[in-house]
Structures are given as structure tokens and as C-alpha cells.
């Protein structure tokens, strides 16, 4: 699961690394802005962090579930909290790309 998220984030990071043209309001002599790299890093690093968090939470959760089946809801919440990190990275990347500040 986390490897799929990592591959998706790397693909989205490559899409955001496309140079920005003059029509979008950003212009530089080279036709490239650092905001694209920042957006790609926001998604990519957030996905890597989420993969690490989900991997640790799921491993610990499996250990808990082997002894106590009634803790399934709690384990599911901890795994979902780790997945939420990617959402924050995606929100920051969208803000960086489309804010035009």
C-alpha cells in the first residue's frame, strides 16, 4: 500500500516539475520557477513520511490484533492518521502551484 502511494507521489511530483510558462503569471529568464520543485517535494516527502508511519503503525497493529481482537478500531485509527500526512502534502502543493502570490 505504501509503495503504491510512493509511486503515485513520485509521478505527481514529476508532473509538477514541468517548467511554468509565461502565461501563468510566473516568469523568469530561464522559464523555470522553484515553486514547482517545492510542490513536488511537498508531495514526495509527505508520501515517504506517510509510508514510514503506516508501516510502523500497521506492524504494531498486527502485533496488537494477534492478542486482542477488540482493538481493531483503535489500530485502524492509528493507521489512518499516518495516511493523513499525504493529504497535508497535497494541500500545500496545490496552494503553492495555484496561489499566484
What does this structure look like?
The protein is mainly alpha-helical. Helices cover 75% and strands 0% of the residues. Helix 1 runs antiparallel to helix 2 and helix 2 packs antiparallel against helix 3. The longest helix is centred in the middle third of the chain and has 34 residues. The protein is elongated, with a radius of gyration of 18 Å. It starts with a helix and ends with a helix. The mean pLDDT is 79.
Brief summary of the model shown:
The protein is mainly alpha-helical. It has helices at 2-16, 34-67, 72-98.
Q: How many helical elements?
A: 3
Distance between the termini: 36 Å
User: How many extended strands?
Assistant: 0
Shape: elongated
Percent in strands: under 5%
**On the 0-100 scale, what is the average pLDDT?**
79
Topology summary:
Elements: H1 2-16, H2 34-67, H3 72-98
Describe this protein with a few key phrases.
75% helix; 101 residues; 3 helices; mainly alpha; 0% strand
Amino acid at each position: 500500500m505504501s509503495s503504491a502511494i510512493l509511486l503515485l507521489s513520485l509521478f505527481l511530483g514529476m508532473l509538477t516539475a514541468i517548467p511554468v510558462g509565461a502565461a501563468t503569471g510566473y516568469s523568469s529568464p530561464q522559464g523555470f520557477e522553484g515553486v514547482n520543485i517545492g510542490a513536488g517535494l511537498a508531495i514526495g516527502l509527505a508520501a515517504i513520511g506517510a509510508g514510514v508511519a503506516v508501516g510502523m503503525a500497521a506492524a504494531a497493529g498486527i502485533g496488537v490484533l494477534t492478542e486482542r481482537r477488540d482493538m481493531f478500531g483503535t489500530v485502524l485509527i492509528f493507521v489512518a492518521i499516518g495516511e493523513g500526512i499525504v493529504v497535508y502534502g497535497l494541500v500545500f502543493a496545490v496552494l503553492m502551484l495555484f496561489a499566484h502570490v
